[in-house]
């Protein structure tokens, strides 16, 4: 895939994530020039405002793969569970959530 097609795909996925959040009542927006520059010393993709605009957003990165390359093992480990915790020695755990769990958690957040 050419660079321009990669960029369009990334933009499309970011817009989808923003719309998914808005559909469950959570304000979100694509970060200006996400990934293209270090605007305000950050290059993340999406700002999520579960606590309202008066609070700092959760900043999120998104990755998409046509065939799931790199995601297959994570999906196997996650299975039908609600969360997958990943921890490397001497590091904080990472948490992988399926959308259904993420949306349920955000639904419990004070808006």
List key phrases describing it:
alpha+beta; three-stranded antiparallel sheet; two-stranded antiparallel sheet; 15% strand
The average pLDDT value, as a whole number, equals 87
| Dominant shape | globular
Q: Helix count?
A: 3
Radius of gyration: 15 Å
Find the count of extended strands (DSSP E, 2+ residues). 5
Mind explaining what this structure looks like?
The protein is an alpha+beta fold. 33% of the residues lie in helices and 15% in strands. It has 3 helices and 5 strands; from the N terminus they run H-E-E-E-H-E-E-H. The protein has helices spanning 3-23, 72-78, 99-107, and strands spanning 27-30, 46-49, 58-60, 84-86, 94-96. Strands 1-2-3 form a 3-stranded antiparallel β-sheet, with helices on one face. Strands 4-5 form a two-stranded antiparallel ribbon. The N and C termini lie far apart (40 Å). The model has no long low-confidence stretch (mean pLDDT 87).
Write the layout of secondary structure elements.
Blueprint (H helix, E strand, L loop, with lengths): L2 H21 L3 E4 L15 E4 L8 E3 L11 H7 L5 E3 L7 E3 L2 H9 L4
Antiparallel strand pairs: 1-2, 2-3, 4-5
Brief digest:
This protein is of the alpha+beta class and 111 residues long. It has helices spanning 3-23, 72-78, 99-107; strands at 27-30, 46-49, 58-60, 84-86, 94-96.
């Amino acid at each position: 895939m050419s660079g321009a097609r990669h960029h369009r795909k990334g933009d499309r996925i970011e817009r989808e994530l923003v719309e998914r959040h808005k559909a469950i009542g959570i304000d979100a927006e694509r970060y200006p020039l996400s990934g293209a520059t270090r605007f305000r010393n950050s290059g993340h993709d999406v700002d999520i405002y579960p606590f309202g605009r008066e609070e700092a957003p959760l900043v999120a990165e998104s990755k998409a793969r046509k065939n799931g390359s790199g995601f297959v093992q994570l999906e196997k480990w996650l299975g039908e569970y609600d969360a997958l915790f990943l921890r490397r020695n001497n590091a904080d755990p990472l948490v992988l959530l399926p959308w259904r769990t993420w949306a349920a958690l955000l639904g419990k957040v004070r808006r």
